Amino acid sequence: MLKAPFDPVQLAIPFFVLAIVLEILLGRFGKAKANYETRDTAMSLSMGLGSTIAGVVFGGVVFATTVGVYQHRLFTIPMTAVWAWVAVFFLEDLTYYWFHRLAHERRFWWASHVNHHTSTHYNLSTALRQTWTGGVAGTWLLWLPLSFLGFPPAMVAIQKGISLVYQFWIHTEAVGRMPRWFEAVFNTPSHHRVHHARNPRYLDANYAGILIIWDRMFGTFIPEVDEEPCRYGTVKNLGNFNLLHNVFHEWVGIAKDVAGAKSPKEALGYVFGPPGWSPDGSRDTSHTLKAKWRARVGFE
Amino acid sequence: MIQLGGSVVAVALLVAFVRWLGVARPTPPLDAASAKALLDVEFPDHRPKATWIASDGAGLIARDGELALVLYKRGDGYVARDLPWSAVASLKPTSGRVTVRVSDARPTFAVSDDVWPPKELA
Predict the structure, then answer these.
(1) Fewest CB within 10 angstroms: A28, A188, A189, B98, which?
(2) Residues A188 and A270 reside in one and the same domain
(3) Cβ(A246)–Cβ(A47) under 8 Å?
(4) Which residues of B touch A45 (CB under 8 A)?
(5) B95: left (phi over 0), alpha (psi -120 to 50) or beta
(6) Which domain holds residue A289?
(7) CB pairs under 8 A between A and B
(8) Secondary structure class of B109 (helix, strand, coil)
(9) How many domains does chain A have?
(10) Residue B91 lies in a domain
(11) How far apart are CA A224 and CA A191, in angstroms?
């Protein structure tokens, strides 16, 4: 099967809306921690709306490429087999982990992903702050090996949708910690708060989609500690509430840096180096920020 | 197009709902203690010698040698920027406000009089 018979994300939209309304009410009546700022929420929701339009624009290319790859598949995996769904669940989630890690640790892909992280709030509306430029960044290519293996494109699309729907509920401060066994295996609000935090302690951690086991396996897991509450946003927070600035600011930053590069090597560093990379090391990367933090903590 | 129109309306309604019932973070006017706490968090590697807090408490400028550390309110939080002190020292307040040019914004700060730079930073 090539085209998915349903889209989990589309089906979940009414639930998203109701959950956001509920979270706002819980925050209003002091039943849960939930802060909402009007312009911040407007930007998150507008990003979500715009991302669906961008998805339509790039959807044709992504679909055609995926089908093209599937036509040269190694195996034919039946969409009706339970084992196939179990396999695609794990493989898609592993793919998501590496996509997400790449999207944070290399500037070209960070430029597309950064706008998901620009909210200084952490509430359910933040989950909808999705990229408009993912099609350009090409991270969707990372899922092609699944189709090459033989998973039907519809199956991969449904599993990607399930992952995105799962990740909605973890964007909240209203939930503290889940039971220990759940925190050990699954991505949770606590783990994902760390991921959205800008405290040096928490940078570049917890890339998981559904299963946190990948972070534990690949050494990127950092637990949330009560002594250091998460501060949300990016290392250098946006200076305004301009929607287009949010979408394109990192792309513009790359273009300016490349235009001023003194050599092709420098230009490549600006594009594919870690966010914050500079030839003379005068800017901060996550690595240098963490090193400075460790030094401060050590001396204090 | 109908779906898009419906989505735009839904977004507008949700934003209106947040404006009505949403609870933003409390951001009372800065005082000396909260200003220091904010500077410690946003500029942990700096030890500013002097800090000036805007007269309405909605921002501050601190001086660390030839660097100006700027914190201004955006929504219910603060944005941190640094720029050369000379760029701040040369500003001219008008009508009780001074506007700072940072890379992606033009934050304005309330000044109690039109003396600039303020005596705390001079």
Answers:
(1) A28
(2) no
(3) yes
(4) 11, 14-15
(5) left
(6) 248-299
(7) 91
(8) strand
(9) 2
(10) yes
(11) 7
Q: Is residue A43 part of a domain?
A: yes
Task: For residue A91, give Cα distances in angstroms to A6, A65, A73, A172, B106.
Answer: 21, 19, 16, 26, 47
Residues A131 and A261 in one domain: no
Same domain, A289 and A160: no
Q: How far is A222 from chain B (nearest CA, A)?
A: 20
Q: Classify residue A166: in a domain, yes or no.
A: yes
Q: Is residue A34 part of a domain?
A: yes
Residue B1 resides in a domain = no
In a domain, A133, yes or no: yes
Q: Which two tokens stand for residue B120?
A: 């705390």
- Asked whether the beta carbons of residue A49 and residue B79 sit closer than 8 angstroms, the reply is no
The DSSP H or E segment spanning B77 is strand B77-84
Interface test with B, best of A18, A40, A122, A246 (most B CBs within 10 A): A40
Per-residue pLDDT of chain A (300 residues; tens, 9 = 90+): 678 888 999 999 999 999 999 999 999 999 999 999 999 999 999 999 999 999 988 999 999 999 999 999 999 999 999 999 999 999 999 999 999 999 999 999 999 999 999 999 999 999 999 999 999 999 999 999 999 999 999 999 999 999 999 999 999 999 999 999 999 999 999 999 999 999 999 999 999 999 999 999 999 999 999 999 999 999 999 999 999 999 999 999 999 999 999 999 999 999 999 999 999 999 999 999 999 999 998 855
User: What's the predicted TM-score (pTM) here?
Assistant: 0.95
The total number of structural domains in chain B stands at 1
A198, A253: one domain: no
